[in-house]
Known about the structure:
This protein is mainly beta. The chain has a single domain, classed as Jelly Rolls, CATH 2.60.120.10. The chain has helices spanning 7-13, 147-153, 159-167; strands at 17-18, 24-30, 34-37, 41-44, 47-54, 59-64, 67-75, 78-83, 89-94, 105-108, 113-117, 126-134, 142-144. The chain has a 6-stranded antiparallel β-sheet. Strands 9-8-11-6-13 form a 5-stranded antiparallel β-sheet. The protein is globular and about 50 Å long.
Amino acid sequence: xxxxxxxxxxxxxxxxxxxxxxxxxxxxxxxxxxxxxxxxxxxxxxxxxxxxxxxxxxxxxxxxxxxxxxxxxxxxxxxxxxxxxxxxxxxxxxxxxxxxxxxxxxxxxxxxxxxxxxxxxxxxxxxxxxxxxxxxxxxxxxxxxxxxxxxxxxxxxxxxxxxxxxxxxxx
Length: 171
């Protein structure tokens, strides 16, 4: 029986670097074809990255101007937390089929504030996912959430939403 790779082995093998939202990433695909989007300029038709989130780290709330799909690869399940347009929280556990209520992928609609966190103890100490973005990812379309801004924007939201904002933003 083979052992699971360590988080450091994955980071090294996949040549990952720190991501501004937390965790580590490496781009694996950028479509050579592009399209023009009125307020964004030219964007690749699609992109894909590996994203590793170590236990104890979080993917801080952020949003993109494109849809994003997270595909589970290995490690522990992770909870993706999204703030819905009605200010409610939606949590989707991304992980292997058969691991509680985990799903192998989650779709995050463009413009949605979202982040991710490990909510339960597991054996690997990390989660490795693939993230596909269409139209393709560009850092100019990436927005980190400022805690004060989200608390102001969602001041009348439920305590669950406020707690998630406090947990998944930097002070």
